[in-house]
Amino acid sequence: MSQNPFLIAPQDLAPTLGRAGLSVVDASWYLPAQKRMAAAEFEAAHIPGAVFFDHDKIVEPGSNLPHTLPSADIFAAAVGELGIRETDTIVVYDGMGLFSAPRVWWMFRTFGAGDVRVLDGGFPAWKAAGLPVEQGVARTRPAPFQAKCDPSAVASLAAMRETVARADTQIADARPADRFEGRAAEPRAGVRAGHMPGAHNLPFLSLAEDGRLKDAGALRAVFAEAGIDPDQPVVTSCGSGVTAAVINLALASLGNRQVQLYDGSWTEWGSAPDTPVETGPATVR
């Protein structure tokens, strides 16, 4: 069994399926360039008893950003319809191994769920282990979810402006190096290329191996190479707030409880007309 309290291995999850108080959540989501349809893949095959979490629908209505964290009431209503309670053991997985599941892990924790795990290796590891799958839409029974948002988990645009101006908190950007450095155009129209002044580049893929989160020693080495002290406060960012949560998961796994996620991420910062933007490799100030 994994010693990481935020992960669960497929072979440990399998014998618990169907037990009261367990909710399994398929949190798959893909970029347009990946040409995969998460909902369709869920209906074709998923872990028995799992429900599907739609990243594009469980958001704040009316926001002009792609994945804005909803209010506590909206989140509670959406996941309650899926039959999930905040007192459940909630296991989240995705179809890439370690890509979009940490975002939903972070959301459940932000709204007060006490026992949330990420399936180690995701659905690819589940299938590779020869474990059962089922087809079709999820069979759900609505349940009450008592949501209470932890505001300390989330950084706003105003807070990020202050963080950048003060240069007193580490910023970890999970995007690939070519986007961070401004060598590649952003996938969303109207978003400038580059990064926030003072940010460190920590591509989320560097934290995983074969779709699994690296062990503590390897994680610390990755943070050190990126110039980040994993024991000090960190605010994470990415393109739209999804893969930043991989960094949050890694830092939580190392015992850091001083971590925020910038929910608007680069889509918000890079599209604002007056935010400072740098290009090129990270520079430590």
Structure description:
The protein has helices spanning 10-13, 38-44, 72-81, 101-110, 122-128, 157-166, 177-180, 216-225, 244-253, 265-271; strands at residues 7-8, 22-26, 51-52, 89-93, 115-119, 154-155, 170-173, 200-201, 208-209, 212-213, 234-237, 259-262. With 285 residues, it is of the alpha/beta class. The protein has two domains: 7-149, Rhodanese-like domain (Oxidized Rhodanese, domain 1), CATH 3.40.250.10; 152-271, Oxidized Rhodanese, domain 1. The strands form three sheets. The protein has a five-stranded parallel sheet. 44% of the residues are buried.
Blueprint of the fold:
Elements lengths: L6 E2 L1 H4 L8 E5 L11 H7 L6 E2 L19 H10 L7 E5 L7 H10 L4 E5 L2 H7 L25 E2 L1 H10 L3 E4 L3 H4 L19 E2 L6 E2 L2 E2 L2 H10 L8 E4 L6 H10 L5 E4 L2 H7 L14
Parallel strand pairs: 1-5, 2-3, 2-4, 4-5, 6-12, 7-8, 7-11, 11-12
Antiparallel strand pairs: 9-10
Key features?
285 residues, alpha/beta, Oxidized Rhodanese, domain 1, 2 domains, five-stranded parallel β-sheet
Radius of gyration equals 18 Å
- For the largest sheet, list the strands in their spatial order: 1-5-4-2-3
The quaternary state of the protein chains shown equals single chain
The top-level CATH class of the largest domain is Alpha Beta
In CATH, the topology of the largest domain is named Oxidized Rhodanese, domain 1
The span between the termini is 41 Å
Helix content: 25-40%
Number of strands: 12
**At the fourth CATH level, what is the homologous superfamily of the largest domain?**
Rhodanese-like domain
Largest sheet: 5 strands, parallel
Q: Would you tell me the structural class of the helices and strands?
A: alpha/beta
Question: What is the average per-residue confidence, as pLDDT, rounded to a whole number?
Answer: 96
Give me the CATH architecture of the largest domain, please: 3-Layer(aba) Sandwich
